[in-house]
Amino acid sequence: MNNLNRESSASDRDLWQAFLAGDREAFARLFHLYSDAMYAYGRRLLPMPNWSKTLFRMFL
User: Fold this and answer.
1) pLDDT at 9
2) Contact (CB, 8 A) for 23 and 2
């Protein structure tokens, strides 16, 4: 990972900027940090719980 591969965790802003610049590891870290919240949010929005699970797995 670019210069985000340091011991201290990068801020969300740093990770987002790195992701926008094409850094795949930054995306992976953002996904790891927020995947539980995104899944829970999707379950509340979608009428069928399986839809959320299916969509979530598409991004893994």
Assistant:
1) 64
2) yes
